[in-house]
Amino acid sequence: MTVSAKLRNESRGAHYREDHPSQEDIHWKVNMETWLYEEGLEVKPIPVLCENLPA
Fold first, then answer.
1. What's 12's DSSP letter?
2. Which of residues 51 and 33 earns the better pLDDT score?
């Protein structure tokens, strides 16, 4: 989770960053999918499909 939070250049919810205090939905409305392999960690941003969210 720390790696995912550090990759975001914004603040979101409990992940507040003094160096990036604003929330940027245009670039960061994503889920961070994290996979652990023998070679290391892979983190992929997966876009949130807003049209599927309830109003």
1. B
2. 33
Number of domains making up the chain? 1
pLDDT(55) > 60: no
Long-range contact set of residues 3-7: C-beta below 8 Å, sequence gap at least 24: 3/34, 3/41, 3/43, 4/32, 4/34, 4/43, 7/32, 7/43, 7/45
**Full residue range of the structural domain in which residue 18 is found:** 2-52
The pLDDT of residue 44 is above 80: yes
* 3-state helix/strand/coil string of 16-36: CECCECCCCHHHHCEEEEEEE
Cα distances (angstroms) measured from residue 31 to each of 7, 12, 21, 39: 12, 12, 19, 23
